Amino acid sequence: MLENYVILKTITIKSIEMKKGFTLIELLVVISIVGLLASIALASLNVARAKAADANVKQALSQIRAAAASYYQNNNDTYGSDVNSIDCLDLAGGNLFTASDIEALINSAVVSTGFSTGQMGYTSICTLAGDEWSVLVPLKHQVGYHWCVDSYGNSKAVPEDQTFIELVTAGVLNSCNNW
Question: 3-20: per-residue pLDDT in tens?
């Protein structure tokens, strides 16, 4: 009986001694699970970055209203010469959008999106006709939308659809309410 116990104990000890590491399959399963979790985390991080960029666009453009009111008062109750441009950062002087503080706010909004140009080939849209103005910058998280602020106090996301394209072409973008 004692012999059987010694043989059994030897077999058990040998089987325990042989099981010191992980098998290749176990390691591959763990690596694949870690990779899956990392890809989920990175996707969530990219969405958060895009939403942060959109928040920066909205914040920068909302500050334009106060700067525009100051510009209006400092320039004899006028916003300057009329403008209809699909690139606010490439304008000649003599109007609201070329004031250094407003230009810096528009540039901040455009830079935060990370786009060199929008889907239609521009970074921003600025219109000015008399006392009416509007600024639009593409949003990063809401693809196909622009954030619009205007002289009427409107702020909203507007879709880049056929109506948008027609309004850009016609130069009728003095209000975010055109949508």
Answer: 555 555 555 555 555 567
Cβ atoms < 10 Å from Cβ of 28: 11
Q: At what angle do helices 100-113 and 24-74 cross, to 10 degrees?
A: 160
Place of tokens 């219109």: 127
H helix or E strand, kind and range, residue 134: strand 132-138
Task: Report residue 32 as tokens.
Answer: 């694949």
CB distance 88 to 125 below 8 Å: yes
Alpha-carbon distance 135 to 127, whole Å?
7
pLDDT digits (tens, 9 = 90+) for 66-76: 999 999 999 98
Say how far apart CA 119 and CA 73 lie, in whole Å: 35
Gap between the Cα atoms of 100 and 94, Å rounded? 11
Torsion, Cα 73 94 168 146, to 10 degrees, reads -60
Q: Whole-prediction pTM value?
A: 0.72
How far is residue 90's CA from residue 72's CA, in Å, rounded to a whole number?
Answer: 21
